[in-house]
Amino acid sequence: MPGRAAVALRAAGILASAAGIVALAVAIRRRRRVCRAPLRRRTTEVGGGFELPESAPAPPSIHGSPGLALTRQTVEVISSSVPVIGSTEAASIFYTELFAIAPELKALFGSPEAQQRKLRGILTWVSGVLTDMPSLSEGLRSLGVRHLRYNAKLEHFHAVKSAFMQMVSIVDQQSISSAAHDFDGTDSEADDEDADEDDADEEERGAGRAGARRAPIDRHQRLLDVSRAWEALLYVFIGEMSPMMLMQDTIGSFHAALANDLAAPAGGTCLALAGAQGASLLIMAAQLTREPRQRETIDRATKQLQHARTSLETLAKLDMCVYCRVMAAIRQPALTYPIARLRAISAALEQAALIPLQVAEWAVHTLRVARALLPIAGMSGVGDAGAGSYLLLAAGRAAIENVWVNTGSKLAAQGWRGWAHAIDARARELLDMLDDVEGDIKAIQAARNPRDG
Q1: C-alpha span between 296 and 261 (Å, rounded)
Q2: How far apart are CA 137 and CA 82, in angstroms?
Q3: 417 pLDDT band (50/70/90 cuts)?
Q4: Distance CA 167, CA 434 (A)
Q5: 10 Å Cβ neighbour count for 221?
Q6: pLDDT at site 282
Q7: How confident is the model at residue 340 (pLDDT cuts 50, 70, 90)?
């Protein structure tokens, strides 16, 4: 009996193990059946049936160049100071400062004398086209193309701006001090020559001496105006030249450019690039899908995603351009014509709000493509498609926050801000659309990647 009981127990254990193996095999077969099921049925099972968008958002665009931020006063200050800022001495100081800040840049330049001549030529040319914005924009973009050939990178702009502003401070202070000294001497000589004139002339000389006593205050304001005017112009340079470098730059150099205190590239550029990366991952998922019965849908989705990626890359460049316009408007002289400056800031902030709004438009559009693609994507690309979708969701939400930063700016409120209401309203609509499509995508992802236990 004991022997029979032991045999029975052993047999029961074997049967239990066999039952477990059979259950596991059935589960695996069911999983495979779901993955290999006809795509039309799978789409229904995972919450699909979504159609591809019929149309895309408007092509990325901006209105006006960074140079439009410059007021008439700023242009006058720049033009009047070109003989000093564009001098041989100033060019020499600039390159000395530049190589002290970034010694590695010395290898990019030829002979110092030749570089100094080029710099003086550029500044002289700029002073002649400041009132002709199309010519200024075209010339600065051509300059950017040439610098790309020299292996210039986005991170170099920070050193260039720092060196240039240091040079402006040095040479303008020297020139103003010299002019003030000459003025004091001339005034003294005039007093000596006119000592015997009548009382009216004496009163006039007294006014002249009072003007001389006011010179230090005027000198300080002049230094401030010149410095701010040239800083504004540098942002115009960066806004026109840097976008073409963006897609040619290395990842390391781009990160270095982000990490410095220059205004561009910054958050708006990053969120547009994140959206472009999301679209690229969705293209990968489409390419990994081999189902012939869905080939037409996959091909259409791929074309739409490629268009979205290109548009988001363009918006990343445009964001750099418009934010440099904002900085040019803010940094320029403010005291003499404050209304003109505030209007320039308001117009620049409007463009700065429209770019992230367009990013959000493209994020919503691309996510709708993803919503139609995810249910039919091959299993090998589901993870990549999910990652791309979440990148786009993050880009869209961050873009809307960026819109509201610009429309809610105190600087915008000081100028004319009638443009902000329509932009805010559209941003709220896009946020609702993002919420809707996010729920659909999460449901599809959960069905495609069931979590056991």
Answers
A1: 48
A2: 19
A3: low
A4: 49
A5: 13
A6: 97
A7: confident
Distance CA 76, CA 175 (A): 17
Q: Which two tokens stand for residue 60?
A: 């990325």
Nearest one of 244, 248, 308, 299 to 277, comparing CA atoms: 308
Here the tokens at position 447 are 């069905």
Q: How long, in residues, is the chain? A: 453
pTM value is 0.79
pLDDT band at 176 (very low <50, low <70, confident <90, very high): low
The rounded Cα 201 to chain-centroid distance in angstroms is: 61
| CA–CA distance, 151 with 65 (Å, rounded to integer) | 25
For residue 35, give Cα distances in angstroms to 29, 43, 51, 370. 10, 11, 21, 19
pLDDT in tens, 390-407: 999 999 999 999 999 999
- By the 10 Å C-beta count (0-12 exposed, 13-18 middle, 19+ buried), 166 is classed as middle
Dihedral sign (CA 80, 333, 90, 66)? negative
Q: Is 96 exposed, middle or buried (0-12, 13-18, 19+ CB in 10 A)?
A: middle
Taking residue 244's Cβ as centre, other Cβ atoms within 10 Å add up to 15
